[in-house]
Amino acid sequence: FACWGVISIEAGLISPPIGMNLNIIKGVASDVPMSTVFRGVMPFFCALLVLMALVLFIPQIALYLPSVLR
């Protein structure tokens, strides 16, 4: 459950239009339009959505590394 929660928080930080990290990027690169920042972050956002679905439907993905460390 914690892994899924952390992944969803990461997705929230980069999801348009309210993502905090997007506003930070806009502050650093003030000459870049916000639409360009949105387009640049969309592949990462889609990858996080796929990862969330995988962890939700196949929880062994999140439990693999802790089981190896025992």
Summarize the structure.
The protein is mainly alpha-helical. It is 80% helix and 0% strand.
Explain what you see.
With 70 residues, this protein is an all-alpha fold. The protein has one domain. 80% of the residues lie in helices and 0% in strands. It has four helices and no strands. It has helices at 2-14, 20-28, 34-57, 60-69. Helix 1 (2-14) runs antiparallel to helix 3 (34-57). The chain is elongated. The model has no long low-confidence stretch (mean pLDDT 86).
Oligomeric state = single chain
What does the largest sheet look like? none
In total, the number of domains comes to 1
Distance between the termini: 19 Å
Low-confidence stretches: none
What is the helical fraction, as a range of percent? over 70%
Tally of individual helices: 4
Strand portion: under 5%
Radius of gyration: 15 Å
Mean pLDDT figure:
86
Q: SSE string, helix = H, strand = E? A: HHHH
Structural class: mainly alpha
Outline type: elongated
Tally of strands = 0
Characteristic key phrases:
70 residues; single chain; mainly alpha
Write the layout of secondary structure elements.
Layout: H1 2-14, H2 20-28, H3 34-57, H4 60-69
Helix pairs in contact: 1-3
